[in-house]
Design a protein that fits this description.
The structure holds two protein chains of two kinds. Helices cover 17% and strands 29% of the residues of chain A. Chain A is globular and about 50 Å long. Chain A is α+β, with helices and mostly antiparallel strands. Chain A has a five-stranded mixed sheet with strand order 2-1-5-3-4, with helices on one face. In chain A, a hairpin with a 4-residue loop joins strand 1 and strand 2. Chain A has one domain: Phosphatidylinositol 3-kinase Catalytic Subunit, Chain A, domain 1 (Ubiquitin-like (UB roll)), CATH 3.10.20. Chain A has two helices and six strands, in the order H-E-E-H-E-E-E-E. Chain B has one domain: Adenoviral Proteinase, Chain. Chain B is globular and about 50 Å long. Chain B contains twelve helices and eight strands. In chain B, strand 7, helix 9 and strand 8 form a beta-alpha-beta unit. Chain B is α/β, with parallel strands linked by helices. The chains are: A alpha+beta, B alpha/beta.
Chain lengths: 100, 290
């Protein structure tokens, strides 16, 4: 378990006071949890980068899912209407053809 | 068509386009390169392929499109990796579409792409008429779809099954281009449906789904299972829709693929090429509205 703060420069949202950080739990398919603190306007791809770094995986092999739907590059907690203590599921790329 | 149903259809459609465009934004050049012959498809392409097909149905067969629910390629992986209760906790919200709860029991077809990690293999499960796991004659209580609630009267009831003399049963149809045996799939999906019925409809007395292996053309190489899987989803749902029953006999299944045998190999070759075009269409053009 760990906690990280995403540091981003203040935006217009900050000035309006609508950008308080929320806590997000990232859970792997085997149930390991990593906690992050992230501002509502920060693109979740930054979280994905931080997560990939932490677990030593390449970014392009990792998928973030929120309510089972893929998180897009440009999604933010605000655009997904995420709430404090919400969970993001992290999955690893699946490739199939048939290799015996 | 009433204004409300038009609005519902519009909401359904725009959710769709948003989802597709989001998927496309996540697809990288590395993924696209997997559409070349001889390469294996990954989860991003599988999800895009299924959702693009589903999107096409909203235009060509709007009623059928509303009866189909496509699960994420990771859905079954979560069911497989955890106990039923633990898995359900994790996928409970996966039936939300843009914050709107979808009642999966109001759908006729649940499309579940399955990834076999140990064999690096894709195959498909289609849950046919999931509402039949609910207590007998209990149509989905929150179903907004009049088609679904009137179905038990208007559709032929399947009574041929030896273990169901009276009640029609939910079928889990398994389509595997390696012809593999997957006894755990039906029990895991049944457990999921049981927990979903309990959580979303407070219905406890559910019955288990019945397994059906569908005879399908087998893949001829070690790379095409993903393409076969997408192809099976398309053909099989259309078949079920037109025949209104799951194939009961070996003969039924053979007829199913006989019809398209001539086009079969041609279509598979085309499939990879079409996927590339579909991707570009979604990325750069506005999708046509129904």
């Amino acid at each position: 378990m760990s906690e990280e703060d995403q540091q981003v420069p203040p935006t217009e949202e900050d000035v309006k006071g609508d950008n308080t950080p929320i806590n997000v739990k990232v859970v792997s398919s085997s149930g390991e949890e990593v906690f992050f603190k992230i501002k509502r306007s920060t693109p979740l791809r930054k979280l994905l980068g931080a997560y990939a770094n932490k677990v030593g995986k390449q970014e392009h092999t990792i998928r973030f899912l929120y309510d089972g739907a893929r998180v897009a590059q440009t999604d933010t907690p605000k655009s997904l209407e995420m709430e404090d203590n919400d969970t993001i599921d992290v999955m690893v790329e699946q490739v199939g053809g048939y290799s015996p | 068509m009433s204004i409300i149903s038009q609005l519902l259809r519009f909401a359904f459609y725009s959710n769709f386009v948003r989802t597709l465009q989001k998927l496309v934004r996540n697809i990288k050049p590395d993924d696209i390169a997997r559409l070349d012959p001889g390469r294996m498809l990954n989860d991003s392409l599988i999800e895009f392929g299924l959702r693009f097909w589903h999107h096409g149905l909203t235009i060509s067969h709007p009623q059928l499109a509303e009866d189909v629910f496509v699960f994420s390629p990771f859905f079954y992986s979560v069911l497989e990796a955890n106990s039923p209760e633990e898995a359900y906790k994790r996928v409970k919200t996966w039936t939300l579409r843009g914050k709107i709860q979808v009642d999966i029991f109001s759908k006729r077809y649940l499309v579940v792409p399955i990834h076999d990690r140990s064999q690096h293999h894709w195959y498909l499960a289609i849950v046919y008429r999931p509402k039949f796991v609910l207590p007998y004659h209990q149509a989905s209580p929150t179903s907004p779809n009049p088609h679904a609630s009137g179905e038990s009267e208007s559709m032929p009831v399947e009574v041929n099954d030896k273990d169901s003399d009276v009640a029609p049963r939910t079928r889990v149809c398994i389509l595997d281009s390696l012809g593999g045996c997957h006894p755990q799939v039906t029990s895991r999906l049944s457990a999921y449906l049981r927990l979903e019925a309990d959580a979303k409809h407070q219905l406890r007395d559910t019955s288990d789904a019945v397994e059906r292996y569908v005879r399908v053309p087998l893949q001829l190489n070690q790379t095409d299972c993903g393409v076969y899987m997408l192809y099976f989803a398309e053909i099989f749902v259309e078949y079920l829709e037109s025949s209104m029953s799951a194939p009961e006999s070996q003969e039924d299944s053979e007829n199913l693929w006989d019809i398209c045998r001539l086009q079969h190999y041609h279509r598979l070759n085309q499939y990879r090429m079409n996927m590339t075009q579909n991707f570009l269409k979604t990325k750069y053009c506005n999708l046509i509205s129904p």
